[in-house]
Amino acid sequence: MLTRIKDLAAKLAPRLIEIRRHIHSHPELSGQEYQTAAFVAGVLSSSGLRVQEGVGKTGVVGEVKGSTQDEHFLAIRTDMDALPIQECSGLDYASKVEGVMHACGHDVHTTVGLGTAMILAQIAEELGGNVRFLFQPAEEIAQGAHWMINDGVMQNVSAILGVHVFPSIPAGSIGVRYGALTAAADDLEILIFGESGHGARPHEAVDAIWIAAQVVTALQQAISRTQNPLRPVVLSIGKINGGRAANVIADKVQLLGTVRSLHPETRTQLPNWIERIVANVCHSYGAGYQVNYHQGVPGVNNDYALTQLFQSAGEQAWSSDRVQVLPESSLGAEDFSLYLEHVPGAMFRLGVGYPDRIINHPLHHPEFEVDESAIITGVVTMAYAAYQYFQRK
Ligand code: NI
């Protein structure tokens, strides 16, 4: 079966490159994936899948029925949205949309999903189970998985597989990670209330900017002294608003940030931990405060057996030196984790770096590029892993 899958993939290669370039040239922002969804639905139905559009707003679902009485599905999820970035790659199939770019490789993910669907549709009679393909919108704003789940895509699903491109792994290789793959990502807003006054008479005012500076410093220092260094927490304040004029003491400052953590127990204590530090600094200098902690997506925790499925699919399809077992998690976030609240699942990292380049630009970079030979690596890995999933059951 592996040879058959590889042959089918090789035959599909030119078409898949064409598909990927089409999607790459026509990127759409999160929640606005109308053309992409229509295009995906077209490819799926012409490949013989049962297709449903408008699932999770702009998402698409396609199903391959295997030769089984079982009503359960293995889900394969890929995401379709692009980023508000002006592409500077200089490629002849670069984005045709001003200020929007597939800089996170979701064009590749969608193509891998489509290629896998085309192959599994062709081997459906030998497939020991059913596969549901989830083409998800709005991953970049961590909404799409919610929308899809609310529309019932997890009904009768017993496990879920996913993929994300990775520029620091060369094309032709994949990365697998047992356990924590990505971090929980929460949003933080801190408001500091001082008292306005003349810039020349600080003793008559409560300087919210000075206190905000101490809050930022105190939080960073407290991480190093009060958080377990083996359980990483990253807190980044990315935006500060406050003040009116150079000679007026600010009465109010807003700090906006992101909080990343890998361990669920650490995550649950973070809101109180932050509030205590903010409260102490503000009380010291007579300022008021408010902390708004909003839980975003949890971390992706890869299932052991499904990670092994990817590892063995990759090793059998090529060789073991083309499968990297990744020693570290990422503190990036992925809303794939929301599906994992329902069923076990795993994502693998698809190498897309040019092997002969010293620098491959990172994800979300305006010059981000992928070595397109990775598409076939992704499709074969995903299709063979899906086939093996039913063989093992
Ligand atoms: Ni992404």
User: Taking all residues together, what is the mean pLDDT?
Assistant: 97
Number of helical regions:
8
Which ligands, by name, code or SMILES, are bound? nickel (II) ion
Tally of discrete structural domains: 2
Estimated radius of gyration: 24 Å
The CATH homologous superfamily of the largest domain? Zn peptidases
Q: Helicity, in percent?
A: 25-40%
Structural class computed from helices and strand pairing: alpha/beta
**CATH fold call of the largest domain:** Aminopeptidase
Structure description:
This protein is of the alpha/beta class. It has two domains: 2-182 and 299-392, Zn peptidases (Aminopeptidase, 3-Layer(aba) Sandwich), CATH 3.40.630.10; 184-297, Alpha-Beta Plaits (2-Layer Sandwich). It is 34% helix and 26% strand. It is built from eight helices and 16 strands. The strands form four sheets. It has an eight-stranded mixed beta sheet, with helices on both faces. Strands 10-12-8-13 form a four-stranded antiparallel beta sheet, with helices on one face. Strands 7-14 form a two-stranded antiparallel sheet. α1 packs across α8 (374-392). The radius of gyration is 24 Å and the shape is elongated. The model has no long low-confidence stretch (mean pLDDT 97).
